[in-house]
């Protein structure tokens, strides 16, 4: 057959979140015939109900906190009385306007992504998709008079990127009025009087911080000894101190057994019999993969006991023609990782050059105030791999950094991890405002196996927060 009549490689993508979007975009750019199936809107829950609106809410809360903290710089955002205290509220929060802005922005981002896909030639189908064997997708779409149409799309490669949903407990069923998942908070028109947050992982900590900053009384119910148990312990300690400084009630070693509605609010019952009453409750107890009913097992795709799709470092499943990306997989549940998986899957499927994804190079961030940014190895992973004795670590507290002092941001630090023998940087932790923007130099160092001396030899602006990175690297120099 002549090249002019060769059939294009056909790709079907189920789910239009970060992983599915990047897979579709990469496929179209590499000349494939791509169909993307999405039930809600391009961007998926990450754009419409999760990452984009939640981080926007957190940014708004951070702006409010910055106004409050500006008092230490001599900037007063209130009319002081004779004792110097405010005689009227420092700031006013209009939650209805905030949420309207968040959802409008999320919708606009979804539309921009749709336009980008269509501009590269991707066919976007709104509907529910499921596998019909290893090389086809069956799509159900709305038909006239409440009916359903089915369309079968044959594909050489299928990418499953269906994401995950908030985990729900039978003893604490969300109702969207008093008991919420993180997807349901954007219907609130006023700041809750007393928000009880169950779960002190990343999601629980971020929302607890945001709503306390926006003016709600907040109780954070944590089953662990410290908030953010998966993070660097020194970093988590800084965040917990900040939570208590702004007036949050942190209940450690307190497991919630049930949440029920009362006449005017909610009642949370703990495993030790204690109860906590509030006006609203946010359940932040993890997520479950959206893999049920997709026909995965029937198509030969292996799942974990939790229902996640098993994938390798190029996002391939146990069925060669099927790849998967994002929170529905057993990989790292981050939007950035999902995007990388989507691109990697298509590049591998089409025979392009591809580098297997190394999770030790992934940069992550907790969007509290201050933020926690991490990359590479940390104390947990070094200890788990019995490598803790082979590494050295050094911490520079921000209260010694001149730029941090000028900005009034001193409760944080920069911590580097490196191998003793070679000085190669293998990880880092930054606790600071906008730490997500500061971690990139360390991500480059980890990715390219730079030594502490190479990091220290780079010029940092003086004064700057990045100067703490070069200071830490310089302190780790060995002859």
Automatic annotation (TrEMBL):
Gene3D superfamilies: 3.30.390.30, FAD/NAD(P)-binding domain (3.50.50.60)
Keywords: FAD, Flavoprotein, NAD, Nucleotide-binding, Oxidoreductase
Molecular function as annotated in GO: flavin adenine dinucleotide binding; NAD(P)H dehydrogenase (quinone) activity
Ranges where the Pyridine nucleotide-disulphide oxidoreductase dimerisation domain occurs: 363-472
InterPro entries per UniProt: FAD/NAD-bd_sf, FAD/NAD-binding_dom, FAD/NAD-linked_Rdtase_dimer_sf, Pyr_nuc-diS_OxRdtase, Pyr_nucl-diS_OxRdtase_dimer
Keyword Repeat (UniProt): no
All residue ranges annotated as the FAD/NAD(P)-binding domain in the record: 10-342
Cofactor, free-text remark: Binds 1 FAD per subunit.
EC number: 1.6.5.2
Residues the record lists as binding NAD(+): 199-206, 286
Pfam families: Pyr_redox_2 (PF07992), Pyr_redox_dim (PF02852)
Top-level EC class: oxidoreductase
Cofactor: FAD
Annotated positions binding FAD: 55, 129, 327
Reaction equations catalysed: a quinone + NADPH + H(+) = a quinol + NADP(+); a quinone + NADH + H(+) = a quinol + NAD(+)
Subunit record text: Homotetramer.
Record-stated family: Belongs to the class-I pyridine nucleotide-disulfide oxidoreductase family.
NCBIfam families xref list: PRK07845.1
Protein name: NAD(P)H dehydrogenase (quinone)
């Amino acid at each position: 057959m002549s090249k002019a009549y060769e059939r294009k490689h056909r790709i079907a993508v189920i789910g239009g979140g970060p992983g599915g979007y990047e897979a579709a975009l990469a496929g179209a750019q590499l000349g494939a015939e791509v169909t993307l199936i999405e039930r809600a809107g391009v961007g998926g829950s990450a754009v419409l109900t999760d990452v984009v609106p939640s981080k926007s809410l957190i940014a708004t809360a951070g702006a409010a906190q910055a106004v409050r903290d500006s008092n230490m710089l001599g900037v007063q955002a209130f009319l002081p009385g004779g004792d110097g205290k405010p005689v009227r509220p420092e700031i006013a929060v209009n939650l209805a306007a905030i949420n309207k802005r968040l959802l409008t922005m999320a919708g606009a981002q979804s539309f921009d992504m749709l336009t980008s896909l269509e501009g590269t030639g991707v066919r976007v189908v709104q509907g529910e998709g499921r596998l019909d064997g290893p090389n086809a997708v069956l799509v159900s779409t709305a038909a006239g008079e409440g009916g359903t149409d089915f369309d079968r799309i044959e594909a050489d490669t299928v990418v499953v990127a269906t994401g995950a949903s908030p985990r729900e407990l039978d003893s604490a069923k969300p109702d969207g009025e008093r008991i919420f998942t993180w997807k349901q908070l954007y219907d609130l028109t006023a700041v809750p009087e007393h928000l009880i947050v169950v779960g002190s992982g990343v999601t629980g900590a971020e929302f607890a911080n945001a709503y306390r900053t926006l003016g709600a009384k907040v109780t954070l119910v944590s089953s662990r000894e410290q908030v953010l148990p998966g993070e660097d312990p020194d970093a988590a300690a800084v965040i917990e101190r900040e939570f208590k400084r702004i007036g949050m009630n942190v209940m450690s070693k307190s497991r919630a057994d049930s949440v029920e509605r009362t006449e005017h609010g909610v009642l949370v019952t703990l495993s030790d019999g204690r109860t906590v009453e509030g006006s609203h409750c946010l359940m932040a107890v993890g997520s479950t993969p959206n893999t049920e009913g997709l026909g995965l097992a029937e198509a030969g795709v292996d799942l974990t006991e939790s229902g996640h799709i098993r994938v390798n470092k190029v996002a391939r499943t146990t069925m060669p023609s099927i790849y998967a990306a994002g929170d529905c997989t057993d990989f790292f549940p981050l939007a950035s990782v999902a995007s990388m998986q989507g691109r990697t899957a298509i590049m591998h499927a089409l025979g392009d050059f591809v580098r297997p994804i190394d999770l030790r190079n992934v940069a992550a961030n907790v969007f509290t105030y201050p933020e926690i940014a991490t990359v590479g190895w940390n104390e947990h992973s070094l200890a788990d791999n019995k490598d803790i004795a082979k590494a050295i670590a050094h911490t520079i507290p921000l209260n010694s950094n001149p730029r941090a002092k000028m900005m009034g941001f001193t409760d944080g630090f920069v911590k580097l991890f490196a191998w003793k023998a070679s000085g190669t940087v293998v990880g880092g932790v930054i606790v600071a405002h906008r730490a997500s923007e500061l971690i990139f130099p360390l991500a480059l160092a980890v990715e390219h196996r730079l030594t502490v001396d190479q990091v220290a030899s780079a010029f940092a602006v003086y004064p700057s927060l990045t100067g703490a990175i070069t200071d830490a690297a310089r302190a780790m120099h060995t002859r």
